[in-house]
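DATA SHEET
Item: assembly model
Revision: 1
Owner: S.N.
Input lines:
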Amino acid sequence: MPTEIPADSVGLIQPQSAFFEDALPLRCGRSLSNYTLVYETYGSLNQDASNAILICHALSGHHHAAGYNSVEDRKPGWWDACIGPGKAIDTNRYFVVSLNNLGGCHGSTGPMSQDPETGRPYGPDFPIIAVRDWVKSQARLADRLGIDCWHAVIGGSLGGMQALRWSIDYPDRLKGCAVIASAPKLSAQNIAFNEVARQAIVSDPDFHQGRYFDHDTRPKRGLMLARMLGHITYLSDSSMREKFGRDLRTGKLNFNFDADFEVESYLRYQGENFSDQFDANTYLLMTKALDYFDPAGDHDGDLARCLSQAHCRFLVTSFSTDWRFAPERSEELVRALTRARRQVSYLEIEAPQGHDAFLFPIPEYVALIEGFLGSLANGGTV
Amino acid sequence: MPTEIPADSVGLIQPQSAFFEDALPLRCGRSLSNYTLVYETYGSLNQDASNAILICHALSGHHHAAGYNSVEDRKPGWWDACIGPGKAIDTNRYFVVSLNNLGGCHGSTGPMSQDPETGRPYGPDFPIIAVRDWVKSQARLADRLGIDCWHAVIGGSLGGMQALRWSIDYPDRLKGCAVIASAPKLSAQNIAFNEVARQAIVSDPDFHQGRYFDHDTRPKRGLMLARMLGHITYLSDSSMREKFGRDLRTGKLNFNFDADFEVESYLRYQGENFSDQFDANTYLLMTKALDYFDPAGDHDGDLARCLSQAHCRFLVTSFSTDWRFAPERSEELVRALTRARRQVSYLEIEAPQGHDAFLFPIPEYVALIEGFLGSLANGGTV
């Protein structure tokens, strides 16, 4: 934590946890007999519980979206730039809930948790979780917190898919839905990148069919490769050019296989760092949730028909240099929402950061979220 | 080989080999004390040796560009679509030379060859080869074949970089230079993808610091991952969509980590196939040659100044959906050639295949190559 907490920070935050003893039936046909969700909240729930906002995290995210968990923390939560007093998601006005999703590796029930049926970690036996399963578990958390209807559900990337699924599966339980840097389904290329990441993990000899903890090891190399690859897709070609260009680490070519270029050592560092912190089985699960997401699939591929179930207002946002989920993918969603006669605001934000842009406090983007949330307070449901 | 050789095939071809006993000094400061180049030729060299065309191969290519090596061959050479009697590179008119580059794994001296100093395979001790080194070795092959001046040097991707290097280093030894689907240097993103591929290989426990043959093994998993990743960058998003979409292999989701989607099994197949055939040390070398290529680097980054050394005529070609070496990268080259007052024809070909398009007989593209080669015969050097 910085020596002084910034005035616009939510401050020191303690994660909470909720245990659910009712079984959760899952899309895959299996069910979790019970589960725990770890979450954080920022701000205060008002009297009529009408000011709650749910933040859904992306592939490698977690519940810690804002503030500091301890005085030792050097960095705040992953979306601290947008959540706090006076920020776009203003904790003076809103009660913000951010959880770690099922299957995660940050405290909620996932592959590292004990399987009540066997008494040992689930590991690879953890069921494949679909986006709709997360949303169902989030709805139960809302019940627990006394929130009938979210002011808004907000998410970027895989988080945006959860927000979209909320609008379809629980149309009366949210006023606004913000789908940021996301897509109504993955493209073949998106799936292909995920598949290479998965193969990197499962082909690591330390993976042991997902039972690496039994062997007192972890598939660090595979996870590192997966993250390096993922990282390339989060940045834009232009941001990489700006950040690294062809700059050499030592000012000259090495003529060996050490890292010659800055971009190489950056990626190695990112990959190694991530592989120390993240669980490989969780990474596999998250990529499958991405691949499987296709809400129109239940409606003969007709996204507009699918979305006509929704009642809420939508904000769809994309970023000009995002090639993982390019603006065209957001436009598909906007066209379907329009055909379904839903209220939708759409803006493509000019930003150099690629997919990662959704994490940055880009003024136009921040103002858009803030304005959308404010308009919901004024207008109510449509 | 098909039961009947097509009329426009160069037919049954025997690779030849040339041994060079003079040491080849290399860009990295080391040298090869002697070396062998394996090559094929198609068509006949004319009396004044003025009809020779050099084909330079890309990352995973080799000397076998056209025809069939044996009656068992099911597939012809990698650029058979463009090389043959009556084809764009017409073997009735031209004498076509195609070699396996140094460092390769198809017969020319490379990591799998015996190091004369140690008597065992070079393996990881094979020197890092730069594009200029290849060109130098190719010039010696030209000497050997009695070719003072190529009618044209042609290459796609990494092959285009060799063609470009020819125009700079041996300006009087080629009339035409065709740089196809290439770039004057890699971007940070290009390097990043190469680095992930390299890390996949070197982090494979079967890599053994490149001495896998000593351990009677090969880093197949790493090479498979490298190829899967590479393959994604060779195809366009749209061609993947067209080819695979979100088609499911078994018509339904498996809810496990088997390949659900067609694109996954396609990539796995491509990766496994490649890892059976290709040498990992060669793959590493080829990616470094790509990363290091930057002819303007010797001229304070001024590509136009660098290219003003060239005398030949240029054809630069890009493909609309190529995102590995996007049309903008070709345009950089064209702008520099124009500033250097070189004669250059440029066309961006509309093609859905992505980077791989350069291997396809797209009519407009084929006509362009044919026309360029014909115009050189008429116009001579500039």
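QC remark: The mean pLDDT of chain B is 95.
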